[in-house]
Amino acid sequence: MDTIASLFSFITTPVSWVIVQFHKMYGAIFGPDTGWAWGLSIVSLVILIRICLIPLFVKQIKSTRAMQTLQPEMKKIQERYKNDKQRQSEEMMKLYKETGTNPLSSCLPILAQSPFFFALYHVLNGIASGKTIGVINDSLLASARKAHIFGAPLAAKFKDGSATVHALGATVADVRVVTAVMIVLMSASQFYTQRQLMTKNVDTTVKTPFMQQQKMLMYVFPVMFAVFGINFPVGVLVYWLTTNVWTMGQQMYVIHNNPTPGSKAQAAYLERLTKHVTQHGKVRRRSEKTIVKAIVAKGRDRNEFERKFINGLNKAGLAAQADGTVVKSDSAVAVQTEDGTPTTGTAAPKRQQPKRQTKAQRQTGGAKPAGETTSLSKSDEPEDAKPAAPAKKAAPQPGAGGTRSKAQSGQRKGPQRPKSPSKK
Predict the structure, then answer these.
(1) How far is the C-alpha of 331 from the C-alpha of 319, rounded, in Å?
(2) How does strand 152-153 pair with strand 318-320?
(3) Which of 28, 44, 135, 272 could disulfide-link to 22, CB 3.0 to 4.6 Å?
(4) Which pLDDT score is estimated for 332?
(5) What is d(CA 68, CA 201) in angstroms, rounded to the nearest whole number?
(6) Which of 132, 248, 138 is nearest to 195 (CA)?
(7) pTM above 0.85?
(8) pLDDT (0 to 100) of residue 116
(9) What stretches of 100-171 show up as alpha helix (H) in DSSP?
């Protein structure tokens, strides 16, 4: 541990200085030797660090979504070069470079917090050992050793013996109960955060190994917190529990306002947005305009929830524009339709059904122009016209020398001239 402490000694002084400044503020309210003053100082340190890490958190979200999008391509590369690991790695790096994706971006917030975490651990370990560290002098050290959070000293650990705990002015039972409760809350908050991500904010249309990996982490991280938590001082448990709660709330906000495309959270968000837009007739927030603009730009590549959103606007007489705004569909503007093709003006003209033809028109090859009467005389009947159904033989008329006969091979089709009577 001394090696780790020496590695992060460059940040120990700034961390201790921030804690002391917050302690002065809260000490004036709750008293300098109270657990509230020191505990809230650690909580405020977490909040300050997480506010500074918001840009990295945004980058983490973009990287995670980009990785989810690339999972099908990555799977194809793995299958294509499964016997050549070097070529597989080269193709993966090429894919990351072409898409501008960095797999390590999803770990940036955790990596950025690590120095502060170990620096705080070193500060609290010095308090437990009775050693001054950073800007914490002898008077602040004595005040910190007197501070108790729900009966547990700030620097006590779950595995500490009775002698160490009694030296800090507490009992072993109090320390273990408080640390056990905090470890359970820490693990539960981590599990809920990861489960919320997997059940609500993951594209359910694509089944990739990345989803299985995230599902495994949902159970691994809580176990890791439970194992390592018994070696952390109470102050570090306060720090880690606070950062877990912050992460959970931050993720809930992102899922509610900027969900992953194709996820259940996006379906709920677009349903709320449809009701809001149809009620007010416009998009008011900049974030909503950004999402509508992205949906319009997808065109035919929209998922099921996005198509439902566009159709809902069309039914309400509204149309989404390429700039993310929404206008009434009866205005003479370019409207982005469901399949991504622009149309101008109001609704497109309806397709007219062709009029049904009569039997005589079908036999003569089409309908006559309006105003003309259809005649069934022999002169109007085309020579090569065939009857729709075989006609029965008609009885010979008196004075007629013949009947209509079927066309034979080599003869002209159609009615034949009557043969002249032969002379005897």
Answers:
(1) 10
(2) unpaired
(3) 44
(4) 35
(5) 11
(6) 248
(7) no
(8) 82
(9) 108-129, 138-146, 162-167
